[in-house]
Task: structure prediction
Amino acid sequence: VNSDGKISFDEFCVMFGKTEGSGLREAVSKRHGELQKIKGAVGEHSYSEEEKWAFTQHFNFTFEEDKYLTSKGLVPMEPDSMEMFANISDGIMLAKFINLAKKDTLDERALNYPKKRALNKWEKTENLNVVINSAKAIGCTVVNLHASDLETSAGKEYLVLGLLWQLVKIQLLSLINIKECPELVKLLEEDEELADLLALPAESILLRWINYHMVKQECSRRAKNFTKDLKDGEIYANLLHSITPELAECDKDTLMASTGRDRAAGVIDAASAQGVRSIIQPSDIVKGSKRLNLAFCAQIFNNNHGLGELTEEEKELLRVGLPDDAEGDAREERVFRMWMNSLNLQDGNLYINNLFDGCLCDGLYLLEAEDKVEPGSVEWKKVQKKKKGKALHKLMAVQNCNQVVDVGKDLKCSLVGIGGVDINSNNRKLILALVWQLMRKQVLKLLVGPDGKEKAETDVLKWANAAVKDLLAKELPERSPVKDPSDEEEVAARDAADSLLGGAKKIKNFTDSSMSNGLFLLNVVKTLKPEAVDPTLVLPGTDEEEAKQNLRYFLTLARAMDAQIFCT
Result:
């Protein structure tokens, strides 16, 4: 526009606004699928009709045997309609799907269900708060999406579909890891260790799996992406044939005899013959839809990966190759990673798949996290930045990591014996120690007293114990109200729960083992909203399963009150 040889974003918007009839809009639709335009508060947004169709169909397949959703007529839904947006608006279907994506994330008993009347706005909001905060807890990046957007999605369909894609992706990729599928060890390449494979995100493992089958089929093609490399269907034909060569529908010569849309349709039929209930359409393959091709590949893998049985040598490699404390590290890493993803790093364009995959070794993301925790704490002029996407030289990366440690100390983090070289060398224990303290610092910053001073852990402990003490000192009807005092069963359940909760009066610290049965935490919820805790759902917590149910119930109630919690 101004002839400087460069196109700014503002100039692009101006020119795109003048493209009616020029063919550019049609070209974009041809490349990326049918886009629906909707009016937003600050302009027009678009969403993919193909993705709406696919996600609707996925929900239909997923919930076809769910008694509640089928009895209410919420599934099946017509994929070509807008039914899905209406049917997820009370949060129940989405909450159920989150539990399928990540087992036991929330307690479905704590949701508000319509009984003699429809749910009111506040009950829906509580359900949708559970959905949004639970989605964050399992790794979704949720930006500018609120309960009201899910309840009334008109004009916000693109935001809703963005959340749905993340949930579908988490569900479909959840089995693509060494723990769930040890046969993936076969994908190790020369000069690689098991730790290298463990650090790969699921998308990269899928591509490597596809290429493993290409080698097996002596096919010269390789998949480097889920878009253009899969458009002509040749890689799909070889993949499906490699997995089930005995099926006539998967014969690669037959599949390759056709072209374009017909070949894509044959690929989908071949996958169906294997037992895959695909949510992709031939046009999605031909257009190179990244999301739907990724979903399709994951569906094929989950149905039958075709890697064969492990050899004794591979079993031994798995036995000795997993890092020490892998399970404990993995649990902590997941919580801290979810927290870092919630910080909206890189303006929301960054999603960290694994804290230990080398993404923190140059210090840049840790510095940004520190600056989010304490704005202005990082001197960005001293930071060595990447140029044109190239990795930093080791000396520059260590310099950044040294600044990470210095800033951490300024933020009162205990970093004795930790140096920049430890972060650069991907020392797991020390990275976890640093990120944990940053997370703790941010949480405590939220608790500012009337005097403007931040609270310490001891202040939180004193508040919780004092609040529970005050609760238990109240008369029974006030501390544990019932809806119908004349209902003998309801009163009996209330009395039984009150007896259990009455024994959870105090904790010594945040590692007190008495917290593990969940009763004290349920009392904390009652200090804020006494009627929130359903007495029929409170268990003694004397064994591990009962304790887990109480804790899952607590987490769900807290998220309904819009608390952001990353642990499970």
About this structure: Residues 185 and 314 are 7 Å apart (CA to CA).
